[in-house]
Design brief:
219 residues, RNaseH-like_sf, mainly alpha, coiled coil
């Protein structure tokens, strides 16, 4: 709608140059999520890793095929595939995070297998690097945190794109606001859930705080 060449915004501005442009409610929601996440370096690193995992498998047909069918390749049962990170539609990132969480073990097994048997040194190196990042407790914790945050946001964003009156839109957004505040208050439950996932996936539960870098004061 806001395309610079032939979008609705461009057409209205050609007739009324002083007409103000306001993003739709769903777009505003995406902008809020985007700005909130950009200030967190840990979140930026997490989504960069999720995108790197997708790029690693999608850039090779053999790697993508083994992951698409996983252990059921002989039965031709296609499993849920990984999704690309969308740079603009933050609510759509739920599909990327949810798919990776569901296929976590399959992805990790594929990375381990590639790092052991691949004849390409660069492929082995990249697989080992991604494996190390995925096996960290911090990554599993962020996977759990963002899946819980993006799930309700994804749902309400889809609803805001349909025909809806102002009262219903307000109620939906208010419910999501309360849900996210509840997640903040129940952060320990999310941590415990991440620990349970690590135990189920047989991963070490160790969390290392990032080293703080302080600027030297000069007088």
């Amino acid at each position: 709608m806001s395309g610079s060449n032939s979008g609705v915004q461009k057409r209205i501005m050609s007739v009324a140059p002083n007409a103000p442009f306001v993003h739709c409610c769903a777009h505003n929601l995406n902008l809020v999520i985007s700005d909130a996440a950009k200030i967190t370096q840990v979140a930026n690193h997490f989504f960069a890793t999720v995108q790197a995992i997708f790029n690693f498998f999608s850039s090779s047909a053999p790697r993508w095929a083994t992951l698409a069918f996983s252990e059921d390749f002989a039965c031709k049962i296609r499993k849920k595939v990984l999704k690309k990170i969308c740079p603009t539609r933050w609510e759509a990132r739920h599909e990327s995070v949810s798919a990776l969480k569901q296929r976590y073990i399959d992805v990790l097994k594929s990375l381990i297998n590639i790092s052991l048997i691949s004849k390409k040194s660069d492929e082995r190196s990249e697989a080992q690097s991604l494996q190390k990042k995925m096996e960290s407790f911090q990554f599993v914790l962020m996977l759990s945190v963002w899946e819980n945050i993006l799930r309700p946001l994804h749902g309400v964003s889809k609803m805001l794109q349909r025909d809806m009156n102002l009262q219903n839109a307000r109620d939906r957004l208010k419910n999501v606001y309360y849900l996210i505040n509840e997640l903040r208050n129940n952060y320990e439950d999310i941590v415990n859930n991440a620990k349970s996932l690590c135990l189920r996936w047989r991963l070490p539960v160790t969390y290392t705080e990032p080293r703080q870098i302080y600027a030297k004061k000069t007088f």
